[in-house]
Amino acid sequence: MKWIEELRRLLRKVEREGPTGSMSEDGMEGGVSCQEAAEGLFEWLDGELDPERAAGVGEHLETCARCYPFLVFERSFREALARAAEEGSAPEELQDRILESLKAEGFEAGE
Predict the structure, then answer these.
(1) Quick one: DSSP state of residue 20?
(2) How far apart are CA 9 and CA 2, in angstroms?
(3) Deepest of 4, 26, 61, 94, by most Cβ within 10 A of its Cβ?
(4) Residue 65: what are its φ and ψ, rounded to 5°?
């Protein structure tokens, strides 16, 4: 559960520090709207956008007061998942409890 604590710590940091800039009145940071930035968030983080679109989405996400917390959350979540993967799988007892809970709810292995 170390990754959960790390995620909480990072989110508290975002709340304290806020975004690197402020949102424009029209919500078009970097020439990209909040909607466009949200739609491009995952592709931007994965480096899958063309350079021009990546620049606009990146500028928006880094400077928009509304979108910045989503960016930080997604980055933090990905970092937490990566650390959890490095630590190995969950203990067998936890895996068994999860499988039992899923079966009790009607899920079968392999679904």
Answers:
(1) S
(2) 11
(3) 61
(4) -65, -30
Percentage with pLDDT > 90 across the chain: 27
Tokens of 77: 């979540």
* Model confidence pTM above 0.70: no
Rg, Å, the chain Cα set: 18
Distance, CA of 54 to CA of 44 (rounded, Å): 6
Specify whether the backbone of 30 is left (phi greater than 0), alpha (psi in -120 to 50) or beta.
Answer: left
Q: Which ranges of the chain does DSSP label H, i.e. alpha helix?
A: 2-17, 34-45, 51-63, 68-86, 92-104
DSSP secondary structure letter of residue 50: -
Retrieve residue 73's tokens: 């959350």
